Hints:
disordered N terminus; 4-stranded antiparallel beta sheet; alpha+beta; 7-stranded antiparallel beta sheet; 32% strand; 167 residues
Amino acid sequence: MNVKKSAALLVAATALLAGPVVPAASAQPGDAAAPSRSAAQAFEVQRRVDAVLAGHPGGRQVSAGKVHFDGLDVTVYPARQAAQAKAAALNCRYGYLCVDVRGTVFNFYKCQQWSVSNWYGDGDFVNNQTPGTVARFYNKDGSVRWTSTAYQAGRATWDPIYSVRPC
């Protein structure tokens, strides 16, 4: 096979692996073709899913952007879909404590102490557990930072939250 034909096959194979590209009008001058927004979002979501799995042993990825633990489901939304994350947190099923931390929605349903990491900023929460159930959010030293009594929904500051006990 000649060099020109080999190079053409390599370019074609690379294009198939990389998926669609952003039209040239959206690329910066001098840049190679950038991956599509959906490919970039998929990469971002997978990176964040990997961080959830690394920081919380015992989970398994069940689909793109979804991680399941015994007693906790986590959904990672692309950064550009913050409204969907907020809607998911606010659409909390009965019996759950749902928390949106910068586009990652934690749906707690097992009564135990959960260590959390990388929680900072503000986000929405819904305590949709049995009426009167108290969820506790803890500081680094183990002291209670704040509580939520079911049913309650609102907005909270996550820093510095280091662990959660939904009930």
